[in-house]
Design brief:
single chain; about 60 residues; Alpha-Beta Plaits; two-stranded antiparallel ribbon; binds iron/sulfur cluster
Length: about 60
């Protein structure tokens, strides 16, 4: 599955796990954000790992 969209819902508790898992895609400042201009298809596995690893399950993606 090629990932075309990644977003983060409210509720991030700032663990920084997503940034550690996929620093090319996520940046955590006040809350986690998705970086602009990223070709998500290059980081499919990392995005899925980050979404699965988020303890509050606020990371989502779609085709
Ligand atoms: S893994 Fe989840 S809770 Fe942790 S910083 Fe990323 S979005 Fe926030």
């Amino acid at each position: 599955m090629a990932i075309a969209k990644v977003w983060i819902e409210e509720g991030c508790i700032k663990t920084r796990l997503c940034e550690e898992t996929a620093p090319e895609v996520f940046r955590v400042e006040d809350v986690a954000t998705v970086l602009e201009g990223v070709n998500f298809s290059d980081y499919t596995d990392e995005i899925k790992d980050a979404a699965e690893g988020c303890p509050v399950e606020v990371i989502h993606y779609s085709e």
